[in-house]
Design brief:
Blueprint (H helix, E strand, L loop, with lengths): L1 E8 L5 H17 L3 E6 L3 E8 L1 H13 L4 E10 L10 E3 L2 H15 L2 E2 L9
Organism: Fulvimarina manganoxydans
GO molecular function, one term: FAD binding
Pfam family, one: BLUF
Length: about 120
């Protein structure tokens, strides 16, 4: 199982549009057994994605190509034994809540790209 955390800038995204997008993203992610958490502060999106290795890596590659995201920064990519979000789908959190959760996960698994198979950027 793969864990990815990233941040990106979404300058032209309103909070109301974000809420609708999260609902659509949640349904799409659940179809691929991907779960996690997402936060938006009006300018920056921070997200944790967990699920099957290839599904999470492909979703991250899609996010990097998505024009709604700019300045995408991968903060963590690692293999995990179990999702922190089992049974939750895609949870919307405040940026401070997601930061605290990310800190706990990073303490457990480390930061950077530590997955055994490098991420293919394409």
């Amino acid at each position: 199982m793969r864990h990815i955390a990233y941040s990106s800038i979404a300058e032209d995204l309103a909070q109301t549009d974000f809420a609708a997008l999260v609902d659509a993203w949640r349904a799409k992610n659940e179809a691929f057994d991907v779960r996690g958490a997402i936060a938006f502060d009006g300018n920056m999106i921070t997200q944790i994605l967990e699920g099957p290795d290839e599904a999470v890596d492909e979703l991250y590659r899609h996010i990097r190509r998505d024009r709604r995201h700019s300045g995408v920064v991968l903060t963590a990519r690692t293999d995990i034994a179990q999702s922190q979000f089992s049974g939750f789908g895609m949870v919307r959190m405040s940026p401070s809540e997601l930061y605290l959760m990310s800190s706990v996960i990073l303490d457990r698994h480390g930061a950077g790209d530590t997955a055994p198979v490098p991420l293919d950027p394409s």
